[in-house]
Specification:
With 334 residues, the chain is α/β, with parallel strands linked by helices. Helices cover 46% and strands 15% of the residues. The strands form two sheets. The protein has an eight-stranded parallel barrel with strand order 1-2-3-6-7-8-9-10, surrounded by seven helices. Strands 4-5 form a two-stranded antiparallel sheet. α8 runs parallel beside α9, α10 runs parallel beside α12 and α11 packs antiparallel against α12. The longest helix is centred in the middle third of the chain and has 21 residues. The mean pLDDT is 98. It binds 1,3-dihydroxyacetonephosphate. The site of 1,3-dihydroxyacetonephosphate has 10 residues, from α11.
Length: 334
């Protein structure tokens, strides 16, 4: 096992007050967001958008690592530099999303499992050659009255652990993402129970698959009431509940925890990370962000696919990234 390399990468990813930028939307997801923003859904527009992000002035002061998709890691910036190299040249660690999305889980109506383990060992060594030093795999857990089932949690957490072991063998740090969705009407307490059960199962599976916890990053959801839950708790309750759950489930050997934003507004995602740092100034792991929508959305809307808007969009992207970095110090004000 390339223990030293994994440790060096996790250190670089958690450095200073920085966080991760998720810019790894699959082609269908990126196209969906482009359609909503009135942007043409073509490979050239996706490349131009990712070029805008990577060339944002001073991005590296707030962002330590960026997650690319399979399409982007094979593309070059508009100046002809492979995206992974362009990030590396700025001091940003390049990463790659390696899961292949979710499918219905046979025998479990309404539940999903993430695919992508077949051939992953070979793909992983290619991604290493292309410059990736960390990877991401997202499991999706849906809550309603009857689900998640134990069977669905187990299938997803087992796949995450198999993925993590394959990453570490290749010298690539696994970002392990068990996302409990905020769709529906469930309460904060229900989210807490499901998240806790999922995390406890995840760490058992990681142990069983001989994953070295010093060489992973956990990317969890915050503990939130569902979007359509009638009771929306304040940021302090969300922060206390989230941190208490993580302290109960996440061993201190894990070097970093980086939240997904999951559909929170950019302001909410930043404010809640900030509140956690204000209330808990000393935690066993580095605590940061790995947001996609909460960092990118204002920039994508401003860009709208027009070259004349690039500078304004880059400013908006840097603005959100640096506010999240401020939240890591508990010093954020909008
Ligand atoms: P959001 O921050 O938009 O939830 O995306 C993070 C991510 O990488 C989801 O896999």
């Amino acid at each position: 096992m390339k223990t030293q390399e994994l440790t060096d990468t996790t250190k670089a990813m958690m450095a200073g007050d920085k966080g991760l930028l998720a810019m790894d939307e699959s082609i269908p997801t990126c196209n969906k967001r482009f359609a909503e923003a009135g942007i043409p859904q073509t490979e050239e527009y996706r490349r131009a958008y990712r070029d805008l992000i990577v060339n944002t002035p001073n991005l590296e002061t707030a962002i330590s690592a960026a997650i690319l998709s399979d399409e982007t890691i094979r593309q070059q910036t508009l100046a002809g530099v492979p995206f992974a190299d362009a990030l590396k040249n700025k001091g940003i660690v390049p990463g790659i999303k390696v899961d292949q999305g979710t499918v219905a889980l046979a025998g479990f109506p309404g539940e999903k499992v993430t695919e992508g383990l077949d051939g992953l060992r070979q793909r992983m060594s290619e991604y290493y050659t292309l410059g990736a030093r960390f990877a991401k795999w997202r499991a999706v857990i849906i809550i309603n009255e009857h689900i998640p089932s134990g069977g669905c949690l187990e299938a997803n957490m087992h796949a995450l652990a198999r993925y993590a072991a394959i990453c570490q063998e290749a010298g690539i740090v696994p970002v392990v993402e068990p996302e409990v969705l905020m769709d529906g009407t469930h309460t904060l307490e229900r989210c807490r129970k499901v998240t806790q059960e999922g995390l406890l199962m995840l760490f058992t599976e990681l142990h069983n698959q001989r994953v070295d916890l010093h060489g992973i990053i956990l990317k969890p959801n915050m503990i939130l009431p569902a979007k359509d839950c009638p009771v929306q708790e304040d940021d302090e309750i969300i922060a206390h509940t989230t941190i208490k759950c993580l302290l109960r489930c996440v061993p201190a050997s894990v070097p970093g925890v980086a939240f997904l934003s999951g559909g929170q507004s950019p302001q909410q995602a930043t404010a809640r990370l900030n509140t956690m740092h204000k209330l808990y100034p000393s935690l066993p792991w580095a605590l940061t962000f790995s947001y996609a929508r909460a960092v990118q959305q204002p920039a994508m809307d401003l860009w709208a696919g027009k070259p004349e808007n690039i500078a304004a969009a880059q400013q908006a992207l840097y603005h959100r990234a640096s506010l999240n970095s401020t939240a890591r110090r508990g010093k954020y004000t909008e």
